[in-house]
Specification:
Order of helices and strands: HHHHHEHEHEHEHEHEHEEHHHHHHHHHHH
Distance between the termini: 30 Å
Largest sheet: 8 strands, mixed
Number of strands: 8
Helix content: 40-55%
Shape: flat
Radius of gyration: 26 Å
Number of helices: 22
Strand order of the largest sheet: 3-2-4-1-5-6-7-8
Strand content: 5-15%
Length: 521
């Protein structure tokens, strides 16, 4: 979504690095380039003006003129101003003192309200609530049926007393749903309302009637992030006609320029609360302004990556792996496969790598990564006997031929997998050794993520070489190998992908592994 904006800003900052002092002309030229980048990204003109004025005013202040590295300070200012435009702090749902909490969804037809209702219901269920989805969109054909299907997929209940397709009173349905929720012990009610292809009086009157009938604790305006400048006009009309307390951005996985995300919050004054990044019910999360600003500036989003890992990796599995490392039992191909399948559940590998700092430098190579390589790796391991998975050293030439034939790959593929596994084994052995170091206390995943995020920002501000001409290397947590990958590594990636606990230097990755020269491939 923000690729174009990120690329333009990266070029702007590249021109600043290396300057020992910034003149007024440098600041004006930088502001002009940032203005062009924002306008190209479809950010509303009033937002661009306010942003540029603030950046220029701060850039001419003491925090830049007296800084040891003025270019770093300008990047810091842009980052802070982006966070401010996006809302500053993460805003959570306000729960009612007395259940049920009522959440009303409003927006134009096609913005994704019905699917979002299912995503929100699933997310609320994961937070320990018992949500009820209410089918109050009785105009759009099959809207009631669609909500029932989505609710079933999300594993939540639905209240749909009317068939829809133009039949029934949506205001009555919404009002009745509150009493139904009290009787059935549901603590959150999510009301899906009708939309239109454009703003009209009938739409506003119906939405206002539902609002008055249910007195929602939260009214969320659902906006398609791909509609560009019109998102601001639509948001303003809904704010005046119905009112809303928060914004949900949908279709952030699209190829639009993303200006809506930077405009809606500033123009309406209401926070962006959630973001939908795909079609699956799992492609939904709380909106974090600081993390989004980091993504736009190419600093990565390590905290979100770690949160996804926490949701995917089983706690018992993690404890079992930690126990094996502590007892020096050894890391087997069975463990390798288990980790790889867990990573596969987190989503496309390209998306995961895109959250790492510095991923912008390898954007094209990352796009070419094929998740089917992980599936081929899994097929190779599953073609091995239990004994071979536990002790890979017994896999000789004849066994490699048998495994290759059984998994439908070449012997070269089997050899490459065993090489990658040997690297992972070595890394796990190093981790086991570091566990007993004196003074190395346990570090939580969140704490490690914050440390990694801070390191990435430092790297972004001060690219280049350290004193003495030695190239900079990303550092990991104390006592662990520097310059490594994610916790546990990313099994299935090519040789040259650094393993370990620190942040990888993506410019050193070797993606030649993914070029498949076999006939018919």
């Amino acid at each position: 979504m923000f690729e174009t904006l990120s690329d333009r800003l990266d070029k702007v900052f590249a021109g600043l690095r290396g300057k020992g002092r910034l003149t007024d002309a440098d600041i004006d030229a930088t502001a002009r380039e940032i203005r062009i980048a924002l306008l190209e990204a479809d950010v509303a003109l009033p937002v661009v003006r306010a942003f540029i004025n603030s950046v220029k005013e701060r850039a001419r202040g003491a925090e830049v003129s007296q800084a040891l590295n003025p270019a770093q300070q300008v990047i810091k200012i842009v980052n802070e101003e982006l966070i401010g435009i996006l809302g500053g702090e993460t805003r959570r749902i306000r729960l009612a003192k007395q259940a049920p909490t009522v959440i009303m969804l409003a927006g134009l037809q096609g913005s994704g309200k019905t699917t979002l209702a299912g995503k929100l219901g699933r997310w609320l269920k994961g937070q320990g609530h018992t949500p009820l989805l209410v089918a109050a969109d009785l105009q759009r054909p099959n809207a009631v049926n669609q909500l029932s299907i989505v609710a079933g997929q999300a594993g939540v209940d639905v209240f749909a007393p009317e068939p829809g397709n133009g039949v029934g009173d949506p205001i009555r349905v919404a009002a009745d749903s509150i009493e139904h929720a009290r009787r059935t012990m549901h603590d959150v009610v999510v009301v899906d309302t009708a939309g239109r292809l454009g703003i009209d009086a009938e739409l506003m009157a119906q939405a206002a009637g539902i609002r008055d009938a249910v007195q929602p604790d939260e009214t969320l305006f659902v906006v398609d992030a791909m509609i560009g400048q019109d998102a601001v006009n639509t948001a303003t009309a809904f704010q005046e006609g119905v009112g809303f307390s928060g914004v949900v951005l949908t279709k952030l996985d699209g190829d639009a320029r993303g200006g809506a995300a930077l405009s809606v919050r500033y123009v309406t004054g209401q926070p962006i609360m959630f973001a939908s990044t795909g079609e699956k019910l799992t492609d939904f999360d709380v909106f974090h302004p600081e993390r989004m600003a980091s993504r736009i500036l190419g600093m990565g989003d390590v905290l979100t990556l770690i949160e996804q890992a926490e949701q995917t990796f089983d706690a018992e599995q993690a404890e079992r792996m930690a126990g094996k490392l502590a007892s020096r039992e050894g890391f087997t191909l069975e463990d390798f496969l288990e980790q790889m399948m867990a990573i596969r559940k987190m989503g496309p590998i390209a998306n995961l790598l895109g959250m790492l700092p510095g991923a912008g430098a390898m954007k094209e190579q990352i796009k070419n990564i094929d998740d089917r390589d992980l599936d081929r790796t899994a097929a190779i391991i599953r073609s091995m006997t239990p004994e071979e998975r536990v002790n890979s050293k017994i896999i000789n030439a004849s066994r490699r031929v048998r495994i290759a034939n059984g998994s439908g790959v070449s012997v070269t593929d089997v050899n490459q997998l065993l090489e990658r596994f040997a690297q992972a084994q070595k890394m796990m052995s190093q981790m086991a050794g570091s566990m007993g170091l004196p003074g190395m206390g346990p570090m939580s995943k969140k704490a490690r993520g914050r440390q990694m995020q801070a390191q990435s920002k430092k790297g972004k501000k001060g690219k280049g070489k350290a004193k003495g001409g030695a190239p900079r290397r990303p550092m990991g947590p104390p006592g662990l190998p520097p310059g490594g990958g994610l916790p546990g590594g990313l099994p299935g990636l090519p040789p040259g992908f650094p393993q370990g606990q620190g942040l990888p230097d993506l410019t050193k990755l070797n993606f030649d592994q993914f070029k498949d020269d076999r006939p018919g491939r």
